[in-house]
Amino acid sequence: MPERALLRQRVRLAQSDEAARLAELVAAAFAEVAARLGLTRENCPSHPSFADEAAIRRSLSYGTVFLRIPEDGAPSGCVGVRRPKDGICALEKLAVLPAARRHGTGRALVEAAAMVAVDWRATELEASIIASEHDLARWYDGLGFVPLRTARFPQLPFEVMVLRTGVGLGSLKPDSTYRESD
Question: For residue 5, what are the CA distances in angstroms to 22, 104, 152, 177?
């Protein structure tokens, strides 16, 4: 438990000059998913495994902020938080390097993103995932997210699941209710 509390304290706001490092982190964190699902630049160019500095800078220019957890001088995890629309902030590119998984990194990033959402006066936090990623859906459920809908988009070779949770005091499920497997 203390390790997770320390991780929460280490979440930092990423700076725009870190865009290249963040893109490398995001691409590395999503590489296994892309390989397992057969995603390529040709059939799914917008997948996070193909993130580049330009994509991160584009998100930043739209008002998305990126949070990161540093590890030995380099980020081990990050997440983008989009400014609220209709009271809802969206998570973007929640990425945790394989070596940093199962240590609370993802939870710490989502908790920090929820605090940003509260600061922006949002009432909910939304995440979109590949619908067939059942372990990831269970992980989000363990945080208190509930599935809202699934959708197909012509530019994506998979179905997307949208999940949502409230933000504010007590909105996310406490650690003790779920053994994290981020």
Answer: 23, 9, 38, 16
Rounded to 10 deg, the angle between the 19-37 and 53-61 helix axes is 110
**What residues have CB less than 8 Å from 168, skipping those under 6 apart?**
114, 118, 123
What secondary structure does DSSP assign to 104-140, as a single string? THHHHHHHHHHHHHHHTT-SEEEEEEETT-HHHHHHH
Residues 47-70: tens digit of each pLDDT: 999 999 999 999 999 999 999 998
Q: What are the φ and ψ backbone dihedral angles of 87, each rounded to 5 degrees?
A: 80, 10
Alpha-carbon distance of 131 to 134, in angstroms, equals 7
Residues 125, 162, 178, 111, Cα dihedral to 10°: -20
Nearest in space to 178 (alpha carbons), one of 110, 88, 129: 110
